[in-house]
Specification:
The complex is a heterotrimer of chains A (about 375), B (about 270) and C (about 650). With about 375 residues, chain A is an alpha+beta fold. Chain A folds into three domains: about 15-115, Ubiquitin-like (UB roll), CATH 3.10.20.30; about 115-130 and about 140-265, Fumarate Reductase Iron-sulfur Protein, Chain B, domain 2 (Orthogonal Bundle); about 310-365, no CATH class. Chain A has helices spanning about 45-50, 115-125, 145-155, 160-165, 165-170, 180-190, 200-205, 220-225, 230-245, 250-260, 265-270, 295-305, 360-365, and strands at about 15-25, 25-35, 75, 80, 95-100, 105-110, 110-115. The N and C termini of chain A lie far apart (about 70 Å). Chain B is globular. In chain B, strand 1 and strand 2 form a beta hairpin. Chain B has one domain (about 30-265). Chain B is mainly alpha-helical and about 270 residues long. The relative contact order of chain C is 0.15. In chain C, a hairpin with a 2-residue loop joins strand 8 (about 175-185) and strand 9. In chain C, the strands form six sheets. In chain C, strands 7-3-2-11-18 form a five-stranded parallel β-sheet. In chain C, strands 19-17-12-22-23 form a five-stranded mixed β-sheet. In chain C, strands 1-10-9-8 form a four-stranded mixed β-sheet, with helices on both faces. In chain C, helix 1 packs parallel to helix 4 and helix 3 (about 90-110) crosses helix 11 (about 435-455). Chain C is about 40% helix and about 15% strand. Classes of the chains: A alpha+beta (about 375), B mainly alpha (about 270), C alpha/beta (about 650). Chains A and C meet through helix 1, helix 2 and helix 3 of A and strand 1, helix 3, helix 4, helix 10 and helix 12 of C. Chain A: Keywords: 2Fe-2S, 4Fe-4S, Iron, Iron-sulfur, Metal-binding, Oxidoreductase. Chain A: This is 2Fe-2S ferredoxin-type domain-containing protein. Chain A: Pathway: Carbohydrate metabolism; tricarboxylic acid cycle. Chain A: InterPro entries: 2Fe-2S_ferredoxin-like_sf, 2Fe-2S_ferredoxin-type, 2Fe2S_fd_BS, 4Fe4S_Fe-S-bd, Beta-grasp_dom_sf, Helical_ferredxn, SDH/FRD_Iron-Sulfur, Succ_DH/fum_Rdtase_Fe-S. Chain A: Belongs to the succinate dehydrogenase/fumarate reductase iron-sulfur protein family.
C-alpha cells in the first residue's frame, strides 16, 4: 500500500506538488499536498502514500493496481485516466498534478463517484441469447469470427469512455436516452457474436441506447486504457448496420409495403428471447415480488393505457420465524413494525404499470 | 448495482469543480489547425470553382478535378469528356453533377464529422473540455440524421473516382500522341490518393465485409475487409492528403493553363 | 452515536453469497436457478473481483488439442502438483466436472480462443501433462468474471420480465463488507456488515451463507493480491465455528515483477514461460536445469537443446525445466538470489525478447506487453523482465465437505467455494486449476446451499444481542482516538509475515513470528480510525485488520507445526518431504479468542483412483505401510481383472 518509502536504487525521492479534490455531494474543493515521489511510481502510489501519511480518510477506489480491473478511474490534469496506469515520469519535474473525481457521475466522497448509471444501462442491454439447437460443448466457432467480439470483451469497465463522452458529461439530461460507448460496444459485441440468436440488436442500439446521439468525436477511443477501437470498430459499424436496416431506401420501401422489419419499441423488456436459459422455478417461485420499477419508459407506456399482457406478480409471504410468526424485533428492525405483508421489496405507491385499473372511458377511446 | 428500493434516492450532485476544464496541455491546438486548414481549403476551392477558366491544358489534355466532368455549355468542348447538359450561368459550377456529391461525401464522412464537430461546432472542442452548447441531440433528428446517408454518397464517390481516373488516363493522350509530363504524374498521384481515401471509407469497409456475421464463410470478402481495415486506420491522414493533392493538382493545372509555368515533359 | 439509535437496513434472503469473484457469482447463479432468493455481497464494484487477474486460463480436460487428455490425467496432474496432500475427492470432482463448467460458460456468452476446427483452444501450462487451459489471450480471468456477471444480468432481466423488478430474486450489494456471521445455535441465521459508501449498517437474515471471499495475500509485503484479500471469509468462518485446513501452504508465484518498485508483486503470467521465456541469473546462465528435483527428473529436459525442441515437438521431447511446478521455480529463484546471482532489485531475468520475434510476442501476450509498457515503460519484446517470488494464492482455507462445499466444524448452513476453501489443491496449486475450481465448486456450493435451505424446517432467527455486539465492534475504531493508525499496523503485520513466515521458513523465526503476532493482537484491539463513516478507507482497514491477524496466526502456527517441506511450505530446517506428514492435515479452529491447531488424518483415496498412478511415483510420496496396501490392491486387482477377462471371453464365446 504505497509504503515503500525507501525508494528505488538510483534517484532519491523528491517532493511533488499535488492538488486533490476533497469533498462530497454537499461541496468540496481542491486541496494542496506535498508528497514524496520515487522513481517509477504511478499516481495511485502517490494517493496511497497520502492515505498512509497526511490523509488517512482520503477515499479512492482501487483493486488490482495493474490496469486490469478498471477501479481507479479518476481525472488527472483534467483527463480521465486510470491512476495505476499514469506514470509520474510523464509529468514535468515541477508540474502540479491535479486529481479530481470523474465529472460525469455524482460524487460520493473525494475521488469516489457513484457509477451506478453504468450498471443500470448494463442491466437494460439484452443479454447473450444462446442458440436453441446447440448443447453446451457443441459450440463451434472460428477464430476469425470471434476476434471482433473478443476485442470488445477486453473492456475492463473502467467507465473512462462513459465519463469523457460529452453527450452525458455536458448534458446530464441525456442520461435517460443514452447508454454510452461502453454499451454500444456491448451491443456490437453481441451483434457480431457468431452464435447470438437475437436479430434486433441494431434496432435496440438505435431506439433504446441512443446510438444517434453519438457524433463520433472519438474521445472514448482516446481515453480507452485497453486501446479498444471503440469508434472505428464498434460504434461506426453499428451505425452502418443501423443504416442497413433503417436508412436503406430499398429496405425502407420493403418494410412499408410488406410491413416487415418494424420492431416494437418495447422489444427489450416485453419480448422473450427464444433461447434464454430458463430456470426450473420460473413462474412458480416462492419469492416473487411486485417490486417497484423505476423504469421511466414503462411508466410512459403505462400512461398510454393498461398493459393487459402484464404478468401479475404472485403475492409474497414475508419471512416468518420458527414459530410461523413474523419476527418482531423492533430494536434492530429498520421500521417501526412488522415486515410488510406485501413483501419487503414493494414500495408504495406502486408504479403505474403494475396497476390493473382501467379507466371507464378507455375502451371507447380505443374504438 | 445499488438497488433503487432501499438506498437513498434522488438526484445526487456531481463534484463541485469550478474550473471548466483542468486540462493543462494545448488541447485547443488540434481544433485550431483544423479550422485554419479546412477554411483555407474551402476558400481556395470556392474561388477556383467560380473562376470558370484555366481548368484545361489543351496541349497536354490536363483537366483539373474541380472541373471534371465539365458539363455546362460554357465548357471548352475538348474538356467535356461526357457531354454538355447545363446552361453556362456563372453560379453553376462547371462540374455541377459531381461537386455537390463530392462535397456531401466529405461532409458526411466519419472523419470529417469528427473534425468539424470538434473544431467548428465545439461539440466538444476537445476531450473533457465542455461542449459549447446548452442542449444536444446529436445525430438523432433532422438535419444531422442525414449523416446516415454517407453510404450513398460513397457510391457516387466511387463513380466520380472512376471519372477522375479516366481523366488521368486521357491525359496521356495529347494532341501529339502519347506523352508523359510532371502534370501526368500529379494527376495520377491525385487519383491514387483519391481512390485510397474513397476505399478506406468506413461505409466501404462495412459493405465489403464488416456487415458479415461469419467471416469464415466468406474468405475473399474477409481478406478484402482486412486490407480495407488497414487503409481505414489511415482514413484521417488520407482525408488531409487528398485535400492537399486536390488543391495541388488544381493549382498545377491552373498554373500551366494560365501560362505561369510550363509543364515539365519527360516524353513528348 | 450510540448503538440504540443506529439505523440498520434489514433484508431477507434465502442464500447470501459473500464475495463476487468467480466462485461467488457461480454459486449465486446456481442458487438463483434453484429458485432461491439470492444476495451477492461484493467488497468492491460488481465485476472488479480479483478473478480478473488470472491470466493463463482455466484447466479442463476437454481434449480439444490433444485427444489423449482425460479427467484421469488431469486428476493425476492435480494430485502430483499438490504433492498428494489434496483432498482426493475434490480433485476428482474437479477433474471430472470442469469441462462441463467451461462449456456452460459458452452458453452464457463467453468467447474463448478457438482451435482450427472451431473448438475451444487449450494451451500448455506448468504441471499439466497435455495442453489443457481454455484461454482468451492472456485475460481469461476477465472473460470469466465478465461472462458470469453478464449471466447474472440476464437472470435479472428474466426476473424483471416475470416479476417486474431486476432485483426480485437476485441482487448485488456492491461495495459492502460483511463483518460478522450471525448464528442461531449452531445454524447460520444471517450476516451483518456495512456499506462502504455510506458507512450504514446492513443486516441480512438468511439461513444459508456461501463464503467466496478469496485469499489472504494482503498480509504479505510483496503480493499480487488486491486490498480485498484480507482473509475475511477465513476469519468469518473461524468465528462462526468452522475450521481451516492446510493454512501453512501459501503459493508464491515464481515470477512477479520486482522492478520498478511501484509495481512490485504484479504477476508475469506463466504463459511467458510456456511460450518460450527462459530464466537467467545475473551471469546470464539458464539456471533452471540445476534445480530439477528427482521426482520430476523423468519428465523434464536435461539440455537446453532438448528443451527448445519441446516447443515445436512436445510429443517426442521432454519439457523445459522453466515449466516445473510453481514452488520449484520459486525456490530456484530464491536460491539464485540468495547465492548472489540475482539482479540489483533482488530478482532474476525472465527473457522472452531474445526467444521470439517482437510481432509474435505482441500477438501471444498482448496484455502482458501492454501492462509492462504502460506500468513500467518496459518493452518485453526488447528487454528481459526482472522477476521474483510473490505471494499469490493460499492453498489452505475453510475445511469443507468435498461434495457439497458445506463447512466442517460446529456450524451448519455455511458453505465455501474458491480460494477461501481448502483441500482441493493440497500443498500446491497447478496454474489454471483455480479458475476451474471456482466454477466447479462455486456451482456445487450454490446448489447445496439451496438444498440445505429446502431441508430446513424452520428459519433460524437472528439474536438481537448479536447484532448489538456486531454494531459495537464495528464502530469501536471510530470511537477510539488514542490507538494506532491502521496503516502502520498493517505494515507491521506485513513485515512479520513477509520476513518470518515467508517463502523459506525456520523454526526460530516462526516462534518469533508468533510472539510478534501476539503483540500485534494487543495493538490491533486498540486501533483507531480518523474521520467519519462515509467511505473511509482507514476505518475499513481497521476492521479488516483483525481478520488478517487471526488468519496469519493460523498460518504461522501451522507452519511451525509441520516439520517437513512440501509444496507451498518450505522449512529450511526440514528440507525434505516426509511421507508420514503426507497423511496429516493441520486443522485450525478458534476457541474463544485463541487459535487452536489439531492434526487430522487425510481421507484415504479410493482404490480405483490410487490405481491411476505408477508404483514408482507413489513410492516418492507414500509410507511403506501405504505402499504395502497398494501392492496388495494391485495383486487382487490383477486377479479379479484376469477373472473378469476370462468371464468376458466366455460371454463372447457364448454369443458367437
Amino acid at each position: 500500500m504505497g509504503t515503500e518509502t525507501s525508494g528505488a536504487p538510483g534517484k532519491p525521492a523528491a517532493k511533488r506538488q499535488f492538488r486533490i479534490w476533497r469533498g462530497d455531494a454537499e461541496g468540496g474543493d481542491l486541496q494542496d499536498y506535498m508528497v514524496e515521489v520515487n522513481e517509477g511510481e504511478v499516481v495511485l502510489d502517490v494517493i496511497h502514500r497520502l492515505q498512509a501519511t497526511d490523509a488517512p480518510d482520503l477515499a479512492c477506489r482501487w483493486n488490482c493496481k495493474a490496469g486490469k480491473c478498471g477501479s481507479c478511474s479518476m481525472e488527472i490534469n483534467g483527463m480521465p485516466k486510470l491512476g495505476c496506469m499514469t506514470r509520474m515520469s510523464t509529468f514535468e519535474e515541477n508540474e502540479t498534478i491535479t486529481v479530481t473525481p470523474l465529472r460525469t457521475f455524482p460524487v460520493i466522497r473525494d475521488l469516489v463517484t457513484d457509477v451506478s448509471f453504468n450498471y443500470e444501462k448494463a442491466r437494460e442491454t439484452p443479454a447473450f441469447a444462446p442458440p436453441t439447437d446447440l448443447a453446451p460443448g457443441d459450440y463451434r466457432m472460428q477464430q476469425v469470427d470471434v476476434e471482433r467480439s473478443q476485442e470488445f470483451r477486453k473492456c475492463i469497465e473502467c467507465f473512462l469512455c462513459q465519463t469523457v463522452c460529452h453527450v452525458i458529461r455536458d448534458h446530464d439530461e441525456n442520461k435517460q436516452a443514452f447508454s454510452g460507448p461502453r454499451y454500444f460496444i456491448r451491443a456490437a459485441e453481441l451483434d457480431m457474436h457468431p452464435l447470438d440468436a437475437r436479430t434486433d440488436r441494431k434496432d435496440y442500439a438505435q431506439t433504446e441506447q441512443g446510438l444517434g446521439f453519438c457524433n463520433i468525436t472519438k474521445c472514448c477511443t482516446e481515453v480507452c486504457p485497453e486501446h479498444i477501437k471503440i469508434t472505428d470498430n464498434g460504434i461506426i459499424p453499428m451505425k452502418e448496420r443501423v443504416v442497413d436496416r433503417r436508412y436503406d431506401p430499398l429496405v425502407w420501401l420493403g418494410s412499408k409495403i410488406f410491413r416487415r422489419g418494424q420492431v416494437p419499441q418495447t422489444s427489450v423488456t416485453s419480448e422473450h428471447s427464444p433461447g434464454a436459459v430458463r430456470s426450473s422455478a420460473a413462474g412458480g417461485g416462492v419469492h416473487s415480488h411486485a417490486g417497484g420499477s423505476h423504469d421511466a419508459q414503462a411508466e410512459v407506456q403505462a400512461q398510454q393505457g393498461v398493459n393487459w399482457h402484464r404478468e401479475v406478480p404472485h403475492p409474497t409471504a414475508p419471512a416468518v420465524d420458527a414459530s410461523g410468526k413474523l419476527p418482531l424485533t423492533e430494536l434492530t428492525f429498520d421500521r417501526a413494525a412488522a415486515p410488510s405483508p406485501f413483501g419487503d421489496d414493494v414500495t408504495f405507491p406502486l408504479p403505474p404499470e403494475h396497476l390493473n385499473f382501467a379507466h371507464p372511458t378507455q375502451d371507447e377511446r380505443n374504438h | 448495482m445499488t438497488s433503487s428500493a432501499t438506498r437513498p434516492q434522488g438526484v445526487r450532485a456531481r463534484a463541485a469543480i469550478a474550473a471548466k476544464t483542468l486540462r493543462t496541455d494545448r488541447w485547443w491546438f488540434a481544433p485550431l489547425i483544423t479550422v485554419i486548414g479546412l477554411s483555407a481549403w474551402v476558400a481556395y476551392a470556392t474561388v477556383r470553382v467560380f473562376m470558370h477558366k484555366w481548368y484545361w491544358v489543351e496541349e497536354f489534355s490536363y483537366l483539373t478535378p474541380f472541373y471534371s466532368p465539365c458539363v455546362t455549355d460554357r465548357c471548352i468542348p475538348e474538356a467535356s469528356h461526357f457531354g454538355q447538359y447545363l446552361p453556362g450561368w456563372w453560379i453553376i459550377p462547371d462540374a455541377a453533377f459531381t461537386l455537390p456529391f463530392l462535397l456531401l461525401f466529405r461532409l458526411t464522412c466519419y472523419y470529417y464529422r469528427k473534425a468539424y464537430y470538434r473544431s467548428f461546432w465545439l461539440s466538444p472542442p476537445a476531450c473533457a473540455v465542455p461542449d459549447g452548447h446548452a442542449s444536444y441531440s446529436g445525430e438523432t433528428r433532422f438535419p444531422l440524421i442525414v449523416q446516415n446517408s454517407h453510404r450513398y454518397f460513397f457510391y457516387f464517390a466511387v463513380i466520380i473516382s472512376l471519372i477522375n481516373s479516366w481523366d488521368a488516363i486521357l491525359a496521356f493522350n495529347t494532341p501529339q500522341g502519347f506523352g508523359i509530363g510532371l502534370g501526368n504524374l500529379i494527376l495520377l498521384g491525385n487519383v491514387i490518393m483519391l481512390w485510397a481515401y474513397t476505399i478506406s471509407c468506413h461505409s466501404c469497409r462495412h459493405i465489403i465485409g464488416g456487415r458479415l456475421k461469419h467471416f469464415s464463410k466468406h474468405p475473399v470478402r474477409y481478406r478484402a475487409w482486412g486490407y480495407i481495415s488497414w487503409l481505414n486506420v489511415r482514413h484521417m491522414q488520407l482525408a488531409w492528403i487528398t485535400l492537399g493533392t486536390l488543391a495541388l493538382t488544381d493549382f498545377y493545372v491552373m498554373s500551366v493553363a494560365a501560362g505561369w509555368i510550363s509543364d515539365l515533359r519527360f516524353i513528348n | 452515536m450510540t448503538t440504540t439509535t443506529t439505523r440498520i437496513e434489514r433484508h431477507h434472503y434465502d442464500v447470501v453469497v459473500i464475495g463476487a469473484g468467480g466462485a461467488g457469482l457461480r454459486a449465486a447463479i446456481e442458487a438463483r436457478l434453484a429458485g432461491k432468493k439470492t444476495a451477492i455481497i461484493s467488497k468492491s464494484l460488481f465485476g472488479k473481483a480479483h478473478t480478473v487477474m488470472a491470466e493463463g486460463g482455466a484447466a479442463a480436460a476437454m481434449g480439444n488439442v490433444n485427444s489423449r487428455d482425460s479427467w484421469q490425467v488431469h486428476f493425476r496432474d492435480t494430485m502430483r502438483g499438490g504433492k498428494f496432500l489434496n483432498n482426493f475427492r475434490m480433485a476428482e470432482l474437479h477433474a471430472k466436472e470442469s469441462p462441463q463448467r467451461i462449456w456452460e460458460l459458452e452458453t452464457y456468452g463467453a468467447l474463448f480462443d478457438r482451435t482450427k476446427d472451431g473448438k475451444i483452444s487449450q494451451r500448455n501450462f506448468g504441471g499439466h501433462e497435455y495442453p489443457r487451459l481454455a484461454h482468451v489471450g492472456d485475460r481469461t480471468g476477465l472473460e470469466l468474471i465478465r461472462t458470469l456477471q453478464q449471466k447474472i444480468v440476464s437472470l435479472q432481466q428474466e426476473d424483471k420480465r416475470e416479476h417486474g423488478s431486476y432485483d426480485a430474486r437476485i441482487r448485488v450489494f456492491d461495495e459492502t463488507t460483511i463483518t460478522e456471521l450471525l448464528l442461531d445455535g449452531d445454524r447460520i441465521a444471517g450476516a451483518f456488515g456495512y456499506y462502504r459508501e455510506s458507512g450504514e449498517f446492513i443486516l441480512f437474515e438468511a439461513p444459508a451463507v456461501v463464503l467466496a471471499t478469496g485469499g489472504v495475500g494482503r498480509s504479505y509485503k510483496v503480493t499480487s493480491n488486491s486490498w480485498e484479500y484480507t482473509g475475511d471469509g477465513h476469519a468469518l468462518a473461524l468465528r462462526a465455528g468452522a475450521t481451516l485446513i492446510n493454512m501453512e501452504f501459501l503459493q508464491f508465484h515464481p515470477t512477479g515483477m520486482v522492478w520498478p518498485p511501484s509495481v512490485k508483486g504484479i504477476l508475469v503470467t506463466e504463459s511467458v514461460r510456456g511460450d518460450g521465456g527462459i530464466l537467467k541469473n545475473s551471469e546470464g546462465k539458464r539456471f533452471m536445469f540445476d534445480y530439477v528435483p528427482d521426482v520430476f527428473r523423468k519428465q523434464y529436459a536435461e539440455t537446453p537443446e532438448e528443451a527448445d525442441r519441446w516447443y515445436t515437438d512436445p510429443d517426442n521431447n521432454r519439457r523445459p525445466p522453466e515449466l516445473l511446478p510453481r514452488d520449484e521455480v520459486a525456490r530456484a529463484i530464491n536460491s539464485e538470489v540468495k547465492a548472489g546471482r540475482g539482479t540489483p532489485a533482488g530478482g532474476v531475468y525472465l527473457d522472452i525478447a531474445s526467444r521470439l520475434p517482437a510481432e509474435e510476442i505482441r500477438r501471444r501476450l498482448p496484455s502482458m506487453h501492454h501492462q509492462f509498457k504502460g506500468l513500467a515503460d518496459v518493452d518485453i519484446t526488447k528487454e528481459a523482465m526482472e522477476v521474483g517470488p510473490t505471494c499469490h494464492y493460499v492453498m489452505g482455507g475453510i475445511e469443507v465437505d468435498p461434495d457439497s462445499g458445506a463447512a466442517y466444524g460446529s456450524v451448519r448452513g455455511l458453505f465455501a467455494a474458491g480460494e477461501v476453501s481448502g483441500g482441493m489443491h493440497g500443498s500446491n496449486r497447478l496454474g489454471g486449476n483455480s479458475l476451474s475450481d471456482l466454477l466447479v465448486f462455486g456451482k456445487r456450493a450454490g446448489g447445496h446451499a439451496a438444498t440445505y435451505v429446502d431441508q430446513l424446517t424452520g428459519r433460524p432467527r437472528v439474536a438481537v444481542t448479536a447484532v448489538e455486539t456486531a454494531v459495537e465492534t464495528a464502530l469501536a475504531p471510530l470511537h477510539r482516538d488514542t490507538g494506532e493508525n491502521p496503516y502502520t499496523l498493517q505494515q507491521d503485520l506485513q513485515a512479520v509475515m513477509g520476513d518470518l513466515v515467508g517463502i523459506i521458513r525456520r523454526e526460530a523465526e516462526l516462534e518469533d513470528a508468533l510472539v510478534r503476532l501476539a503483540e500485534l493482537r494487543e495493538r490491533v484491539a486498540k486501533v483507531s480510525a480518523a474521520g467519519g463513516r462515509k467511505y473511509n478507507p482507514g476505518w475499513h482497514l481497521a476492521l479488516d485488520l483483525r481478520n488478517m491477524l487471526v488468519v496469519s496466526e493460523c498460518t504461522a502456527k501451522a507452519a511451525l507445526e509441520r516439520r517437513e517441506s512440501r509444496g507451498g511450505h518450505t522449512r529450511e530446517d526440514f528440507p525434505t518431504m516426509d511421507p508420514q506428514w503426507r497423511r496429516v492435515n493441520l486443522v485450525c479452529s478458534l476457541a474463544g479468542d485463541v487459535v487452536r491447531l489439531a492434526r487430522k488424518p487425510l481421507p484415504k483415496m479410493r482404490p480405483e483412483l490410487v490405481g491411476l498412478f505408477d508404483r514408482a511415483e507413489l513410492a516418492k510420496y507414500l509410507t511403506d505401510e501405504e505402499l504395502t496396501e497398494f501392492d496388495a490392491l494391485v495383486a487382487t486387482d490383477a486377479a479379479t481383472g484376469a477373472a473378469a477377462d476370462t468371464a468376458a471371453d466366455a460371454d463372447a464365446e457364448k454369443e458367437r
